[in-house]
Amino acid sequence: MTDLIKFEKNGAIALLTFNRPEKLNALNYATNDRILDLLDEIERDPTLRAVILTGAGERAFSAGGDIHEFTQSIKAGVDISVREFCKRGQTVTARLESFPKPIIAAVNGIAFGGGCEITEAVHLAVASERAVFAKPEINIGIPPTFGGTQRLTRLAGRKRALELLLTGDTFSAERAHEIGVVNKVVPHEQLLPSAIDLAERIIRHSPLAASRIIAAVTRGINTTIDEGLLIEREMFARMAATDDVREGLDAWIARRKPEYTGT
Fold first, then answer.
1. Which end of the chain is more exposed for a tag (fewer CB within 10 A), N or C?
2. Nearest Cα to Cα of residue 121 among 89, 143, 157
3. Cα angle: 95, vertex 101, 103; to 5 degrees
4. Helical spans, DSSP H, in 77-172
């Protein structure tokens, strides 16, 4: 099970790699459970400040849920399929979305179904020019189940999302960038270096501030502007008494590089 996702450390960056290339990195139940275990481990490790998520092999980031496994759950009944497939997948994407350390998807190839939904859920995404996306669930008679009807609509807008959800058509990395699913598209050989560069530009700042920003955005996006402003105020209040704020202000005044401790 531990081989389903490779876990490597690159300084303060955790690199997670979906590791079922022979299955186009399809997300079986064990892989989804392993993601949650690794995220718990990374959250507890104060030396790790950011996460990069990518796929093994030359073809896929992730082709989505493991249809053969899901089919067995469908045959076992509605309650079982909802619990084993839908709820499990939504738990993973919700955890990625609200994770207190920045997560960057490095989309190296096919990102269909659940693979696309993971890209939508994480905080940032860099795509290879070879990446291809799709919301193909309608081809097997179901809606997306890992949050794709909700997050894609919030990212791309209702009409653009519905076109992709209702046709199941593939779309390019460039189109994914146009509609806000990824932050940028880079040459394939520059994918991981670009993701690492982005992570390094984030982790030079206070990890507490990064966590508060993620919380404010994640919680606030689904509320009214007034409620969102209250959340923003709460996140500021939680930062105001920290050592990181004092260090940031002192360093700015002294025109020196801050040395954050995460306290």
1. N
2. 89
3. 70
4. 78-81, 88-98, 114-121, 148-156, 158-167
Active site residues: 117, 137
* Rounded distance between C-alpha atoms, residue 218 and residue 192, angstroms: 25
Sheet holding 124-128, edge to edge: 5-10, 13-18, 50-55, 103-107, 124-128, 184-186
**Contact present, 67 and 121 (Cβ < 8 Å):** no
Q: Tens of pLDDT along 198-256?
A: 999 999 999 999 999 999 999 999 899 999 999 999 999 999 999 999 999 999 999 99
Got the DSSP string for 224-239?
-HHHHHHHHHHHHHHH
Spatial distance between the Cα atoms of 70 and 164, rounded to a whole number of angstroms: 22
CB atoms within 10 A of CB 254: 9
**Nearest CA to 117 among 87, 142, 97?**
97
Q: Strands of the chain (E only): list them.
A: 5-10, 13-18, 50-55, 60-62, 103-107, 110-112, 124-128, 132-134, 170-172, 184-186
Residue 67: strand, helix, or coil: helix
The pLDDT score that the predictor gives to residue 85 is 82
Phi, psi of 141 (to 5 degrees): 80, 20
Give CA separation, 14 vs 6, 77, 223, 256, in Å.
10, 38, 31, 28
